[in-house]
Amino acid sequence: MSTKQQLFKQQHLDAVKRGVKLLDVAMPGWENDIDVTTLDLVSTSYCMLGQLYGDFHIGKSNLSDALTEARIRYRTVIVGGKTLNDIHYGFEADHWDDEDGCCRPKGYSILTEAWIAVIEKRRAKDVKAERKRRGTDKKVLHG
Q: SS3 helix, strand, coil % of the chain, rounded to 5?
């Protein structure tokens, strides 16, 4: 992997981290509402915001409103008014060029894999915490 490809990948991974923090503020427990088997960042219905809000554009609008209400500072782009910078938060893929593996389809692949990894890690942590709470996390030794 070239240095350029590594930077491209890291940019997308960092964006997902920012998106996680944003969703934690706007919609605690969001990870339980995502179907990772159908998660597809290319689709406006099956992407992160599509699954959480019914449509990418509706989700983008709702998150923009949530940020304003929570008085959180965020990067914006101006398109007929303030809107959430979806690339900055890992909801949309960036692209640098179509050469050297830094194209938009590759970005979507990186984002989808990163979101799935975060969700699966959180779900596993939740299961472990629940088992511990119930006292069922101890291994049973058979002799």
A: 55, 5, 40
